[in-house]
Amino acid sequence: MTRMKNEALPNGEYWAMCRERNVISAAANGHSQVFPKARMTVKDGWAFFQRDGVEVWTCNAVYAAANFNVQPV
Prior knowledge:
This protein is of the alpha+beta class. Helix content is 18%, strand content 44%. The longest helix has 7 residues, at 61-67.
């Protein structure tokens, strides 16, 4: 899914994949909880990342669109 970097994701369920190639790079950018990928729910402008049904990280939907490769579930 290709989006402009300043465009928020619409509400829905997604897979978010880190753009970083390794866990050290992901940690340096604050994305270690998401690396290499996590389920993401977007609701009302916020992105909620889950692993095994547990929320591990949250950011706004514009940041998520700009910093992760996102695919609808």
